[in-house]
Amino acid sequence: MRVGCPKEIKNHEYRVGLTPGSVREYVAHGHEVLVETGAGAGIGADDNAYRAAGATIAKTAADVFAKSDMIVKVKEPQPNEWVQLRDGQILYTYLHLAPDPEQTKGLLASGVTAVAYETVTDERGGLPLLAPMSEVAGRLSIQAGATALQKANGGRGVLLGGVPGVLPGKVTVLGGGVVGLHAAKMAAGLGADVTIIDRSIPRLRQLDDIFGGRVHTRYSTVEALEEECFSADIVVGAVLIPGAAAPKLVTREMLSGMKKGSVLVDVAIDQGGCFETSHATTHADPTYEVDGVIHYCVANMPGAVPVTSAHALNNATLHHGLQLADKGLKALVDDHHLRNGLNVHKGKITNRAVAEALGYEMVEPKAVLAA
Ligand SMILES: NC(=O)C1=CN([C@@H]2O[C@H](COP(=O)(O)OP(=O)(O)OC[C@H]3O[C@@H](n4cnc5c(N)ncnc54)[C@H](O)[C@@H]3O)[C@@H](O)[C@H]2O)C=CC1
Ligand SMILES: CC(=O)C(=O)O
Ligand SMILES: [Mg+2]
User: Fold this and answer.
1) For residues 299 and 338, what is the distance between their CA atoms, to the nearest angstrom?
2) Per-residue pLDDT, 95
3) Which of 5, 103, 191, 232 is the most buried (most CB within 10 A)?
């Protein structure tokens, strides 16, 4: 199969779908790989590094889209990318369709077979292709929040670790999954007072064991949310219902109870965000203020640290990517975890949470693949 990798075009997105190391693996499996010129510049991999790995360099993205059987990307296709997709082609990337009706329409109209990294599952009930970027975004959320908390940046001017004789800042993490765990690790490492809220008691037990009492855990109720958000300097939004639009845990009304100059970091913004007042921002202009509360809502946070992120992402996507290249649609038939990643196929929505969020009929992936 010919596998194509265009340069990412989202605002300040420097990751790349295929590193030179991944290209070598596809080539070793007998595939041709077409990489857009400059695609790896953000991770310090020039065209010669890709040529040495066995890729052919394409002059334009249009060339990559037109000539490839499968497109491997990082971020969801942008409007001028989705019009270049076609029936019979596989798209393998993050999609985050539930909060994005326009992209969904574009993918449906194209006829493409779209496999979303964020809904591929594993045997432990995890989301293995989302996890590495959740690790990155979780860790970054505290750097971003701590920066926004500085007075010159509009924050209330609190140092997260405090100093001897002065109490530390307070960080509340909503959702103790992968993002939440890594946010809590960073915040605790800086010396902050950290509380994680989750609705899963087994998960709260695990977190309590991991942190050995260093971090507080609370079951998710409106009362707990209010108390922990009203007293926080930074609130990290990290809840997820796979495939679905994020639940709005912090309402517009609740903002008025928060401290002026406190910071909301809505990592869940790629699924629509878990604060009612969130809207997606970019690395170029990451924050805005509502009722004196700073909002940071960048939907591609890991794009800020592409050298780390692109390699972590490729580690996670390579195995299933090779299966798709080796077997085509049969890879989806053979592996139900990969099939859980199928969101759109030949004009049909094949993910239940996406269909419910956007009001489409859901067609079973097995049924569309057999047709
Ligand atoms: N903005 C960005 O650049 C990035 C965003 N993300 C996003 O971050 C979000 C979180 O991802 P992960 O941590 O990997 O998910 P996860 O599935 O590991 O964790 C989600 C947690 O939320 C909890 N939860 C769900 N509903 C809840 C509720 N009502 N109250 C309290 N807890 C609740 C679940 O029990 C679970 O522990 C996702 O939307 C993901 O796409 C991930 C990476 C980068
Ligand atoms: C998961 C995601 O949205 C990202 O890595 O950009
Ligand atoms: Mg701004």
Assistant:
1) 24
2) 98
3) 5
Catalytic: 283?
A: no
Residue of 134, 264, 266, 297 with the most ligand 1 atoms within 8 Å of its CB, for mutation: 134
CA-proximal residue: ligand 1, atom 7 (nearest): 268
CB-based contact 42:14 (threshold 8 Å): yes
Task: Tell me which residue of 238, 180, 236, 239 sits closest to 206, measured CA to CA.
Answer: 180
* 144 beta partners: none
Rounded to an integer, what distance in angstroms lies between the CA atom of residue 340 and that of residue 128? 12
Which is the closest atom of ligand 2 to the Cα of 75?
Answer: 6
* Pair 93, 72: CB distance under 8 Å: yes
The answer to whether the CB of 300 falls within 8 A of the CB of 306 is no
Q: Which amino acid is at 17?
A: G
pTM: 0.96
Task: Identify whether 270 is a catalytic site residue.
Answer: yes
Angstrom distance (rounded) from CA 266 to CA 296: 6
131 CA to middle of ligand 3, Å?
Answer: 28
Give the model confidence (pLDDT) of 139-155 as tens digits: 999 999 999 999 999 99
Closest ligand 2 atom to the C-alpha of 13? 6
User: Is any ligand 2 atom within 6 A of the Cβ of residue 270?
Assistant: yes
